């Protein structure tokens, strides 16, 4: 009695089977299941299914006895509807799982986008605050005008005090 311990750092051996395993593309199968699930959830499907059941019951009750293929308890119809439901339920679940995966990815992308927008907003807020502080120290146009007007008044005051106007020879 030997028990085999598989090492986790080594891959398992490929087992050979008598019949080859079917290979399918999970993405294509998932898209197909979504299309089927989308169709099963429509009013058109309900109308088609209702028409089919009404036709089935009508044929098997009103047709001549020799042409009827599913007498009154409609066991074959029940079997077909059960088979259809047994396939529809997993297809719908598969489609829902794929939608959940897409929603999760979309949520993560939205969250990352929101975090980036918040970080950008914080950065811009800090930059605007820094600009406001820097502008407080920068001379504005009105300030420069008032300073220039004051200097002009002082120069006019010096001209009236010294009418000959030769400032360069006096060192002024």
UniProtKB/TrEMBL annotation:
Membrane-spanning segments: 45-62, 74-94
Pfam families from the UniProt entry: DUF1003
UniProt KW keywords: Membrane, Transmembrane, Transmembrane helix
Protein name, UniProt field: Putative membrane protein
Organism for this UniProt entry: Thermomonospora cellulosilytica
